[in-house]
Specification:
Number of strands: 15
Structural class: alpha/beta
Radius of gyration: 30 Å
Shape: elongated
Mean pLDDT: 82
Strand content: 5-15%
Number of domains: 3
Number of helices: 16
Length: 492
Protein backbone atom coordinates (compact mmCIF):
# COMPACT_ATOMS: atom_id res chain seq x y z
CA UNK A 1 0.00 0.00 0.00
CA UNK A 2 1.23 3.49 -0.86
CA UNK A 3 -0.16 6.86 0.21
CA UNK A 4 0.24 9.76 -2.21
CA UNK A 5 -0.07 13.13 -0.49
CA UNK A 6 1.12 16.15 -2.47
CA UNK A 7 2.75 14.31 -5.40
CA UNK A 8 0.63 13.87 -8.52
CA UNK A 9 3.60 12.76 -10.62
CA UNK A 10 4.42 9.78 -8.38
CA UNK A 11 0.72 8.93 -8.08
CA UNK A 12 0.19 8.83 -11.86
CA UNK A 13 3.32 6.69 -12.25
CA UNK A 14 1.86 4.21 -9.75
CA UNK A 15 -1.39 4.03 -11.72
CA UNK A 16 0.56 3.32 -14.90
CA UNK A 17 2.52 0.53 -13.19
CA UNK A 18 -0.49 -1.07 -11.49
CA UNK A 19 -3.41 -1.09 -13.95
CA UNK A 20 -5.18 -3.78 -11.91
CA UNK A 21 -4.76 -1.92 -8.61
CA UNK A 22 -7.20 0.06 -6.50
CA UNK A 23 -7.39 3.64 -5.30
CA UNK A 24 -9.02 4.80 -2.09
CA UNK A 25 -9.89 8.47 -2.49
CA UNK A 26 -9.97 10.37 0.81
CA UNK A 27 -10.03 13.96 1.97
CA UNK A 28 -6.90 15.52 3.36
CA UNK A 29 -6.45 15.25 7.13
CA UNK A 30 -7.71 12.58 9.52
CA UNK A 31 -11.25 11.85 8.45
CA UNK A 32 -13.34 8.74 8.02
CA UNK A 33 -16.29 10.59 6.53
CA UNK A 34 -15.21 10.17 2.90
CA UNK A 35 -13.34 7.02 1.78
CA UNK A 36 -14.39 5.99 -1.75
CA UNK A 37 -12.92 3.03 -3.60
CA UNK A 38 -12.00 3.17 -7.33
CA UNK A 39 -10.16 0.95 -9.75
CA UNK A 40 -6.80 2.28 -10.88
CA UNK A 41 -8.06 2.75 -14.41
CA UNK A 42 -11.10 4.79 -13.41
CA UNK A 43 -11.26 8.08 -15.31
CA UNK A 44 -12.38 9.93 -12.18
CA UNK A 45 -9.06 9.27 -10.42
CA UNK A 46 -6.72 9.17 -13.41
CA UNK A 47 -7.85 11.75 -15.96
CA UNK A 48 -7.28 15.38 -14.95
CA UNK A 49 -9.17 16.65 -18.00
CA UNK A 50 -9.14 20.45 -18.18
CA UNK A 51 -8.52 20.87 -14.44
CA UNK A 52 -5.29 22.53 -13.22
CA UNK A 53 -2.44 20.21 -12.28
CA UNK A 54 -2.22 18.96 -8.71
CA UNK A 55 -5.90 18.08 -8.42
CA UNK A 56 -5.36 14.43 -7.48
CA UNK A 57 -3.13 14.66 -4.39
CA UNK A 58 -1.96 18.24 -3.97
CA UNK A 59 -5.12 20.04 -2.92
CA UNK A 60 -8.23 18.65 -1.18
CA UNK A 61 -7.61 14.92 -1.66
CA UNK A 62 -5.10 12.19 -0.82
CA UNK A 63 -4.88 8.85 -2.69
CA UNK A 64 -4.25 5.54 -0.92
CA UNK A 65 -3.24 2.87 -3.45
CA UNK A 66 -2.80 -0.91 -3.34
CA UNK A 67 -3.30 -4.05 -5.38
CA UNK A 68 -4.89 -5.61 -2.26
CA UNK A 69 -8.26 -4.25 -1.17
CA UNK A 70 -7.65 -5.86 2.23
CA UNK A 71 -4.84 -3.37 2.83
CA UNK A 72 -7.17 -0.52 1.98
CA UNK A 73 -9.66 -1.89 4.50
CA UNK A 74 -6.93 -1.84 7.13
CA UNK A 75 -6.32 1.79 6.21
CA UNK A 76 -10.04 2.49 6.66
CA UNK A 77 -9.84 0.96 10.15
CA UNK A 78 -6.86 3.16 11.00
CA UNK A 79 -8.79 6.19 9.75
CA UNK A 80 -11.61 5.47 12.19
CA UNK A 81 -13.98 3.06 10.39
CA UNK A 82 -13.41 0.17 12.75
CA UNK A 83 -15.58 -2.23 10.76
CA UNK A 84 -13.22 -1.87 7.79
CA UNK A 85 -15.85 -0.58 5.39
CA UNK A 86 -15.58 2.29 2.94
CA UNK A 87 -18.04 5.15 2.79
CA UNK A 88 -18.73 4.28 -0.82
CA UNK A 89 -17.47 2.81 -4.06
CA UNK A 90 -17.34 4.32 -7.53
CA UNK A 91 -20.44 3.24 -9.42
CA UNK A 92 -18.56 3.68 -12.72
CA UNK A 93 -15.68 1.30 -12.10
CA UNK A 94 -16.52 -1.08 -9.22
CA UNK A 95 -19.29 -3.46 -8.30
CA UNK A 96 -20.36 -3.00 -4.70
CA UNK A 97 -20.97 -6.72 -4.33
CA UNK A 98 -17.55 -7.58 -5.75
CA UNK A 99 -15.87 -5.01 -3.54
CA UNK A 100 -17.30 -6.51 -0.38
CA UNK A 101 -17.47 -10.21 -1.33
CA UNK A 102 -14.16 -10.26 -3.13
CA UNK A 103 -14.95 -12.38 -6.19
CA UNK A 104 -12.87 -10.27 -8.56
CA UNK A 105 -10.10 -9.56 -6.09
CA UNK A 106 -8.74 -13.02 -5.27
CA UNK A 107 -10.85 -13.89 -2.23
CA UNK A 108 -12.94 -17.08 -2.48
CA UNK A 109 -16.66 -16.76 -2.98
CA UNK A 110 -18.41 -16.39 0.37
CA UNK A 111 -15.44 -14.75 2.09
CA UNK A 112 -14.70 -11.13 2.84
CA UNK A 113 -11.53 -9.56 1.54
CA UNK A 114 -9.80 -9.90 4.91
CA UNK A 115 -10.51 -13.65 4.96
CA UNK A 116 -13.44 -13.88 7.39
CA UNK A 117 -16.47 -15.93 6.49
CA UNK A 118 -19.36 -13.75 5.39
CA UNK A 119 -22.29 -13.80 7.81
CA UNK A 120 -25.46 -15.82 7.42
CA UNK A 121 -28.23 -15.03 9.86
CA UNK A 122 -31.88 -15.95 10.25
CA UNK A 123 -34.27 -13.52 11.94
CA UNK A 124 -37.98 -13.34 12.64
CA UNK A 125 -39.62 -10.92 10.23
CA UNK A 126 -42.92 -9.72 8.82
CA UNK A 127 -43.43 -8.79 5.19
CA UNK A 128 -45.09 -5.48 4.30
CA UNK A 129 -46.11 -4.32 0.85
CA UNK A 130 -46.37 -0.58 0.20
CA UNK A 131 -47.26 -0.16 -3.46
CA UNK A 132 -44.28 -1.48 -5.40
CA UNK A 133 -42.07 -1.40 -2.31
CA UNK A 134 -41.46 -4.73 -0.58
CA UNK A 135 -40.33 -4.36 3.03
CA UNK A 136 -39.33 -6.78 5.77
CA UNK A 137 -39.79 -5.61 9.34
CA UNK A 138 -37.43 -7.26 11.79
CA UNK A 139 -35.03 -6.79 14.71
CA UNK A 140 -31.31 -7.48 14.40
CA UNK A 141 -28.70 -7.65 17.16
CA UNK A 142 -25.93 -5.07 17.12
CA UNK A 143 -23.29 -7.81 16.79
CA UNK A 144 -24.77 -8.70 13.39
CA UNK A 145 -25.46 -5.14 12.26
CA UNK A 146 -21.86 -4.02 12.77
CA UNK A 147 -20.27 -7.15 11.31
CA UNK A 148 -17.85 -6.40 8.45
CA UNK A 149 -19.68 -6.09 5.15
CA UNK A 150 -23.20 -5.96 6.64
CA UNK A 151 -23.86 -2.40 5.51
CA UNK A 152 -22.28 0.44 3.55
CA UNK A 153 -22.97 4.17 3.50
CA UNK A 154 -22.94 5.93 0.15
CA UNK A 155 -21.64 9.37 1.15
CA UNK A 156 -22.36 12.37 -1.05
CA UNK A 157 -19.27 14.30 -2.14
CA UNK A 158 -20.41 17.83 -3.05
CA UNK A 159 -17.04 18.57 -4.64
CA UNK A 160 -17.33 15.73 -7.17
CA UNK A 161 -19.85 16.35 -9.96
CA UNK A 162 -19.71 12.66 -10.93
CA UNK A 163 -20.29 11.33 -7.44
CA UNK A 164 -23.30 9.02 -7.01
CA UNK A 165 -23.56 8.98 -3.21
CA UNK A 166 -26.50 10.52 -1.37
CA UNK A 167 -25.78 10.29 2.38
CA UNK A 168 -24.75 13.28 4.51
CA UNK A 169 -21.32 13.25 6.14
CA UNK A 170 -21.21 11.36 9.41
CA UNK A 171 -21.36 13.63 12.45
CA UNK A 172 -19.14 11.89 15.00
CA UNK A 173 -20.33 14.09 17.87
CA UNK A 174 -23.96 13.16 17.17
CA UNK A 175 -23.09 9.45 17.06
CA UNK A 176 -21.13 9.75 20.31
CA UNK A 177 -24.14 11.27 22.08
CA UNK A 178 -26.15 8.19 21.18
CA UNK A 179 -23.28 5.91 22.25
CA UNK A 180 -23.09 7.66 25.65
CA UNK A 181 -26.83 7.16 26.14
CA UNK A 182 -26.77 3.47 25.13
CA UNK A 183 -23.79 2.65 27.36
CA UNK A 184 -25.28 4.51 30.32
CA UNK A 185 -28.49 2.51 29.98
CA UNK A 186 -26.83 -0.91 30.08
CA UNK A 187 -26.54 -1.05 33.87
CA UNK A 188 -30.27 -0.58 34.50
CA UNK A 189 -31.36 -2.07 31.20
CA UNK A 190 -33.48 0.97 30.38
CA UNK A 191 -31.82 2.22 27.20
CA UNK A 192 -34.20 2.06 24.28
CA UNK A 193 -34.02 2.93 20.60
CA UNK A 194 -37.44 2.28 19.03
CA UNK A 195 -36.82 4.15 15.77
CA UNK A 196 -36.02 1.66 13.01
CA UNK A 197 -32.99 1.69 10.74
CA UNK A 198 -33.86 1.59 7.03
CA UNK A 199 -31.63 -0.70 4.94
CA UNK A 200 -31.99 -1.60 1.27
CA UNK A 201 -30.67 -4.04 -1.29
CA UNK A 202 -31.24 -4.37 -5.02
CA UNK A 203 -31.53 -8.16 -4.60
CA UNK A 204 -34.09 -10.58 -3.22
CA UNK A 205 -33.89 -12.22 0.21
CA UNK A 206 -35.16 -15.70 1.04
CA UNK A 207 -38.33 -15.36 3.13
CA UNK A 208 -40.09 -18.31 4.76
CA UNK A 209 -43.70 -17.09 4.96
CA UNK A 210 -45.10 -19.98 7.11
CA UNK A 211 -42.29 -19.56 9.65
CA UNK A 212 -42.07 -15.75 9.29
CA UNK A 213 -38.29 -15.86 9.04
CA UNK A 214 -35.81 -14.03 6.83
CA UNK A 215 -32.57 -15.75 5.82
CA UNK A 216 -29.84 -13.19 5.16
CA UNK A 217 -26.73 -14.40 3.35
CA UNK A 218 -24.32 -11.49 3.01
CA UNK A 219 -22.37 -13.31 0.34
CA UNK A 220 -25.47 -13.03 -1.82
CA UNK A 221 -27.16 -9.76 -0.81
CA UNK A 222 -24.66 -7.74 1.20
CA UNK A 223 -23.71 -5.17 1.99
CA UNK A 224 -27.00 -3.40 2.62
CA UNK A 225 -27.19 0.29 1.77
CA UNK A 226 -28.14 2.51 4.71
CA UNK A 227 -31.06 4.64 3.53
CA UNK A 228 -31.76 6.06 6.99
CA UNK A 229 -29.95 5.50 10.29
CA UNK A 230 -26.21 5.85 9.68
CA UNK A 231 -25.75 7.87 12.90
CA UNK A 232 -27.66 5.26 14.91
CA UNK A 233 -25.50 2.48 13.49
CA UNK A 234 -22.29 4.39 14.15
CA UNK A 235 -23.43 5.25 17.68
CA UNK A 236 -24.24 1.59 18.36
CA UNK A 237 -20.86 0.52 17.00
CA UNK A 238 -19.09 3.03 19.26
CA UNK A 239 -21.16 1.87 22.24
CA UNK A 240 -20.35 -1.80 21.58
CA UNK A 241 -16.63 -1.00 21.63
CA UNK A 242 -17.01 0.46 25.12
CA UNK A 243 -19.43 -2.12 26.53
CA UNK A 244 -19.71 -5.63 25.02
CA UNK A 245 -23.24 -5.96 26.43
CA UNK A 246 -24.40 -3.66 23.66
CA UNK A 247 -23.66 -6.43 21.14
CA UNK A 248 -26.85 -8.19 22.28
CA UNK A 249 -28.94 -5.00 22.00
CA UNK A 250 -31.60 -5.55 19.33
CA UNK A 251 -32.47 -2.79 16.87
CA UNK A 252 -35.68 -2.47 14.82
CA UNK A 253 -34.77 -2.70 11.14
CA UNK A 254 -36.78 -2.25 7.96
CA UNK A 255 -35.22 -3.93 4.93
CA UNK A 256 -36.33 -3.01 1.41
CA UNK A 257 -35.54 -5.60 -1.25
CA UNK A 258 -35.26 -5.41 -5.04
CA UNK A 259 -34.74 -1.66 -4.72
CA UNK A 260 -32.41 -0.22 -7.40
CA UNK A 261 -29.77 2.33 -6.39
CA UNK A 262 -31.66 5.31 -7.82
CA UNK A 263 -34.81 4.28 -5.91
CA UNK A 264 -32.75 3.99 -2.71
CA UNK A 265 -31.59 7.57 -3.15
CA UNK A 266 -35.20 8.71 -3.70
CA UNK A 267 -36.32 6.98 -0.52
CA UNK A 268 -33.51 8.65 1.40
CA UNK A 269 -34.80 12.01 0.18
CA UNK A 270 -38.39 11.13 1.11
CA UNK A 271 -37.49 9.94 4.61
CA UNK A 272 -35.30 12.92 5.41
CA UNK A 273 -37.55 15.64 4.02
CA UNK A 274 -41.01 14.42 5.05
CA UNK A 275 -40.45 13.10 8.57
CA UNK A 276 -41.13 15.69 11.24
CA UNK A 277 -39.54 15.86 14.67
CA UNK A 278 -41.69 16.46 17.72
CA UNK A 279 -43.01 20.01 17.97
CA UNK A 280 -40.73 22.14 20.15
CA UNK A 281 -43.67 23.31 22.24
CA UNK A 282 -44.58 19.69 23.04
CA UNK A 283 -40.94 18.96 23.87
CA UNK A 284 -40.88 21.89 26.31
CA UNK A 285 -44.03 20.61 28.05
CA UNK A 286 -42.55 17.14 28.42
CA UNK A 287 -39.30 18.53 29.83
CA UNK A 288 -41.29 20.66 32.29
CA UNK A 289 -43.22 17.61 33.51
CA UNK A 290 -40.03 15.58 33.88
CA UNK A 291 -38.49 18.38 35.94
CA UNK A 292 -41.50 18.35 38.28
CA UNK A 293 -41.25 14.57 38.62
CA UNK A 294 -37.56 14.53 39.56
CA UNK A 295 -38.18 14.27 43.31
CA UNK A 296 -41.13 11.91 43.25
CA UNK A 297 -40.59 9.46 40.40
CA UNK A 298 -37.93 6.92 39.45
CA UNK A 299 -36.60 8.48 36.29
CA UNK A 300 -35.50 6.21 33.43
CA UNK A 301 -32.13 6.68 31.82
CA UNK A 302 -32.22 9.80 29.63
CA UNK A 303 -29.75 10.98 26.97
CA UNK A 304 -27.30 13.38 28.58
CA UNK A 305 -28.44 16.42 26.58
CA UNK A 306 -32.05 15.85 27.72
CA UNK A 307 -31.10 14.98 31.29
CA UNK A 308 -29.11 18.20 31.69
CA UNK A 309 -32.09 20.29 30.55
CA UNK A 310 -34.43 18.48 32.94
CA UNK A 311 -32.03 18.83 35.87
CA UNK A 312 -31.44 22.57 35.34
CA UNK A 313 -35.18 23.18 35.36
CA UNK A 314 -35.22 26.48 33.49
CA UNK A 315 -37.50 25.17 30.74
CA UNK A 316 -40.05 24.06 33.35
CA UNK A 317 -39.99 27.48 35.02
CA UNK A 318 -40.21 29.23 31.66
CA UNK A 319 -43.29 27.20 30.69
CA UNK A 320 -44.97 28.19 33.96
CA UNK A 321 -44.20 31.88 33.37
CA UNK A 322 -45.64 31.68 29.85
CA UNK A 323 -48.75 29.91 31.16
CA UNK A 324 -49.22 32.58 33.81
CA UNK A 325 -49.03 35.42 31.28
CA UNK A 326 -51.35 33.61 28.90
CA UNK A 327 -54.09 32.91 31.47
CA UNK A 328 -54.05 35.88 33.90
CA UNK A 329 -56.92 38.29 33.33
CA UNK A 330 -54.91 41.53 33.65
CA UNK A 331 -52.09 40.27 31.44
CA UNK A 332 -51.54 41.92 28.05
CA UNK A 333 -50.61 38.42 26.85
CA UNK A 334 -54.00 36.90 27.73
CA UNK A 335 -54.75 34.28 25.05
CA UNK A 336 -51.97 35.55 22.78
CA UNK A 337 -49.53 32.62 23.26
CA UNK A 338 -50.20 29.53 21.13
CA UNK A 339 -49.62 26.65 23.52
CA UNK A 340 -48.58 23.10 22.61
CA UNK A 341 -51.25 21.16 20.69
CA UNK A 342 -53.69 24.08 20.94
CA UNK A 343 -55.21 25.53 17.80
CA UNK A 344 -55.48 29.19 18.85
CA UNK A 345 -56.26 31.34 15.82
CA UNK A 346 -56.05 34.56 17.85
CA UNK A 347 -52.58 33.81 19.20
CA UNK A 348 -49.70 35.98 18.01
CA UNK A 349 -46.62 34.01 19.10
CA UNK A 350 -45.81 30.33 19.67
CA UNK A 351 -45.09 28.94 23.11
CA UNK A 352 -41.76 27.59 21.89
CA UNK A 353 -40.49 31.08 20.99
CA UNK A 354 -41.65 32.67 24.23
CA UNK A 355 -40.33 29.86 26.45
CA UNK A 356 -37.00 29.84 24.63
CA UNK A 357 -36.60 33.62 25.14
CA UNK A 358 -37.52 33.38 28.85
CA UNK A 359 -35.06 30.54 29.45
CA UNK A 360 -32.30 32.29 27.51
CA UNK A 361 -32.61 35.84 28.85
CA UNK A 362 -34.82 35.94 31.97
CA UNK A 363 -33.94 32.82 33.96
CA UNK A 364 -30.21 33.51 34.11
CA UNK A 365 -27.84 34.17 36.99
CA UNK A 366 -27.46 37.81 35.88
CA UNK A 367 -31.19 38.50 36.11
CA UNK A 368 -32.56 39.41 39.59
CA UNK A 369 -35.81 37.63 38.75
CA UNK A 370 -33.98 34.32 38.97
CA UNK A 371 -32.96 35.07 42.57
CA UNK A 372 -36.57 35.42 43.77
CA UNK A 373 -37.27 32.59 46.20
CA UNK A 374 -41.04 32.98 45.95
CA UNK A 375 -42.41 31.60 42.67
CA UNK A 376 -45.58 33.68 42.96
CA UNK A 377 -43.58 36.91 43.39
CA UNK A 378 -41.41 35.92 40.42
CA UNK A 379 -44.45 35.47 38.19
CA UNK A 380 -46.06 38.68 39.49
CA UNK A 381 -42.91 40.73 38.79
CA UNK A 382 -42.69 39.34 35.23
CA UNK A 383 -46.39 40.11 34.69
CA UNK A 384 -45.92 43.67 36.01
CA UNK A 385 -43.05 44.12 33.57
CA UNK A 386 -45.23 43.31 30.58
CA UNK A 387 -48.14 45.34 31.94
CA UNK A 388 -45.84 48.37 32.22
CA UNK A 389 -44.52 47.83 28.68
CA UNK A 390 -48.07 47.60 27.32
CA UNK A 391 -49.20 50.69 29.26
CA UNK A 392 -46.32 52.75 27.85
CA UNK A 393 -46.28 51.47 24.26
CA UNK A 394 -49.54 49.77 23.29
CA UNK A 395 -52.35 52.09 22.17
CA UNK A 396 -54.28 49.19 20.67
CA UNK A 397 -52.35 49.14 17.39
CA UNK A 398 -48.92 47.91 18.54
CA UNK A 399 -49.54 44.34 17.40
CA UNK A 400 -45.89 43.53 16.63
CA UNK A 401 -45.08 44.01 20.33
CA UNK A 402 -46.76 40.62 20.87
CA UNK A 403 -44.83 38.82 18.18
CA UNK A 404 -41.35 37.30 18.12
CA UNK A 405 -39.48 40.61 17.83
CA UNK A 406 -41.21 42.10 20.86
CA UNK A 407 -40.67 38.95 22.90
CA UNK A 408 -36.99 38.71 21.96
CA UNK A 409 -36.17 42.37 22.66
CA UNK A 410 -37.99 42.83 25.95
CA UNK A 411 -37.03 39.45 27.43
CA UNK A 412 -33.42 40.36 26.67
CA UNK A 413 -33.89 43.86 28.11
CA UNK A 414 -35.36 42.46 31.34
CA UNK A 415 -31.90 41.76 32.81
CA UNK A 416 -30.56 45.34 32.91
CA UNK A 417 -34.08 46.65 33.63
CA UNK A 418 -34.65 44.40 36.66
CA UNK A 419 -31.14 45.09 37.93
CA UNK A 420 -32.02 48.79 37.92
CA UNK A 421 -35.28 48.11 39.78
CA UNK A 422 -33.54 45.95 42.36
CA UNK A 423 -31.54 48.95 43.58
CA UNK A 424 -34.78 50.70 44.55
CA UNK A 425 -36.45 47.46 45.64
CA UNK A 426 -39.66 48.25 43.73
CA UNK A 427 -41.13 45.95 41.10
CA UNK A 428 -44.54 47.64 40.90
CA UNK A 429 -46.20 48.61 37.62
CA UNK A 430 -45.91 52.40 38.32
CA UNK A 431 -42.20 52.06 39.18
CA UNK A 432 -41.60 50.14 35.97
CA UNK A 433 -43.59 52.60 33.85
CA UNK A 434 -41.57 55.52 35.28
CA UNK A 435 -38.28 53.79 34.50
CA UNK A 436 -39.41 52.87 30.97
CA UNK A 437 -40.45 56.47 30.24
CA UNK A 438 -37.06 57.68 31.46
CA UNK A 439 -35.26 55.11 29.32
CA UNK A 440 -37.23 55.89 26.15
CA UNK A 441 -36.74 59.65 26.66
CA UNK A 442 -32.98 59.10 26.53
CA UNK A 443 -33.08 57.05 23.33
CA UNK A 444 -31.25 58.56 20.35
CA UNK A 445 -30.47 57.71 16.76
CA UNK A 446 -32.21 55.39 14.32
CA UNK A 447 -34.24 53.51 16.92
CA UNK A 448 -35.31 56.46 19.09
CA UNK A 449 -38.96 55.65 18.37
CA UNK A 450 -38.88 52.23 20.05
CA UNK A 451 -40.97 53.59 22.95
CA UNK A 452 -43.83 54.74 20.68
CA UNK A 453 -46.74 52.64 19.48
CA UNK A 454 -46.16 53.56 15.81
CA UNK A 455 -42.83 51.74 15.95
CA UNK A 456 -44.68 48.52 16.92
CA UNK A 457 -47.68 48.86 14.59
CA UNK A 458 -48.22 46.29 11.85
CA UNK A 459 -46.02 47.29 8.91
CA UNK A 460 -44.02 49.64 11.13
CA UNK A 461 -40.30 49.53 11.80
CA UNK A 462 -40.51 46.68 14.31
CA UNK A 463 -42.03 44.39 11.66
CA UNK A 464 -38.76 44.27 9.72
CA UNK A 465 -36.19 43.85 12.48
CA UNK A 466 -33.63 41.09 12.18
CA UNK A 467 -31.49 39.60 14.96
CA UNK A 468 -28.73 42.15 14.41
CA UNK A 469 -31.14 45.09 14.63
CA UNK A 470 -32.74 43.71 17.79
CA UNK A 471 -29.32 43.46 19.38
CA UNK A 472 -28.51 47.06 18.41
CA UNK A 473 -31.79 48.31 19.92
CA UNK A 474 -31.03 46.35 23.08
CA UNK A 475 -27.63 48.03 23.38
CA UNK A 476 -29.13 51.48 22.83
CA UNK A 477 -31.92 50.83 25.36
CA UNK A 478 -29.38 49.65 27.94
CA UNK A 479 -27.31 52.78 27.38
CA UNK A 480 -30.39 55.01 27.72
CA UNK A 481 -31.45 53.14 30.87
CA UNK A 482 -28.17 53.94 32.62
CA UNK A 483 -28.18 57.55 31.43
CA UNK A 484 -31.23 58.21 33.59
CA UNK A 485 -29.20 57.73 36.77
CA UNK A 486 -25.70 58.60 35.58
CA UNK A 487 -23.86 61.12 37.74
CA UNK A 488 -22.11 64.07 36.20
CA UNK A 489 -19.21 63.81 38.65
CA UNK A 490 -17.48 60.47 38.92
CA UNK A 491 -14.85 59.97 41.56
CA UNK A 492 -12.21 57.34 40.99
Amino acid sequence: MQIFDGNDVAYLQWLSSHPDGFVLNRRRGKSDGYLVLHRAGCRLVSDAGDNPSGGFTERAYVKVCSVDVGELREHAVAAGRLDGTFTGHCSRCTSRRDVHVGRKFGAPSGQSLHGDRMKKIEVAASRAKQGNLELYVTAIAVRDLIAPGFYSVETLDPDDANDKGYQRLLNKARAKKLADYIVKGQEEGDAFLPTSVFLATDKSIAYDAPANTLAIDLAQVGPFSVVDGQHRLEGLRMAAERDPRVLDFEVPVNIAVNLPWIAQMCHFLIVNTTQKSVDKSVEQRIVARLTEALDVEDMPNLPKWIDNTVQRGEVGKAVKLADYLNTTAESPWLGKIRMANVDASDASVNQRSFVKAIAKYVLTAANPLESFKDAEKERKAFLNYWRAIANVIDDGEASVLYKYNGVELFCKFSTPFFNKLQVAGKFTVPAMESLLHSCFDNMEGEYAGVGHSDFWAKGGKASFLNAGAINEIFKEMSRALHLSSASGDIEL
